Amino acid sequence: MSDVKKSPKRKVITVKQQRVANLIKKGGYKTKGEVIAKAGYPKSMLKDPSKVFNSAGVQMALAKLGVTPESIMGTLKEAQNANVVVVHKGKATESEVPDHRLRSKVAVDMAEITGMKKLHIRQETVNVNVDMEDVGDLFG
Q1: Residue 19 and residue 40: Cα distance in Å, rounded?
Q2: Do 46 and 34 meet the contact criterion of CB atoms below 8 Å apart?
Q3: DSSP secondary structure, the chain, as one string
Q4: Residue 102 and residue 75: Cα distance in Å, rounded?
């Protein structure tokens, strides 16, 4: 037996992974599929684009660009306090009125990022047949 130790695998960022990170930072895409297609991934990857997005290479490339879960959440937290911006004669002024549309979108985005969006509350309608005499007895 040899006492030679294997060196740990180096984590390398591929060209396509770097493209994905750059496109994410740039923004303007509606779906993950659009991003990975634009980055040059084959159509077969469109079935599960999360594999690309969650890969170590993409995450490292994003971190190098300053896009981390912490930075995203920080931006979203700031947006939670957004107010309506009024533009008059070319001058933008922040009002005291909360921007509920933006705040609502931020809440949905934060829930999705944290995994809370996957929590579903089951609602059901239950029909109950009650004899009116029993109701009268309940209320005196």
Answers
A1: 8
A2: no
A3: ---PPPPPPPP---HHHHHHHHHHHH---SSHHHHHHHTT--GGGGG-THHHHTSHHHHHHHHHTT--HHHHHHHHHHHTT-EEEEEETTEEEEEEEE-HHHHHHHHHHHHHHHTGGG-------------HHHHHHHT-
A4: 12
HSE (side-chain half, CA atoms, 13 Å) at 27:
2
> What amino acid occupies position 83?
N
* Residue pair 76/104 in contact by the 8 Å Cβ criterion: no
- pTM score: 0.56
d(CA 40, CA 26): 16
Q: Answer whether 39's CB lies under 8 Å from 23's CB.
A: yes
pLDDT digits (tens, 9 = 90+) for 42-72: 999 989 888 998 899 998 998 899 888 788 8
Among all chains, which residue has been given the structure tokens 């933006």? 102
Question: In 106-130, which positions are buried (b, 16+ CB within 10 angstroms) versus exposed (e)?
Answer: beebbeeeeeeeeeeeeeeeeeeee
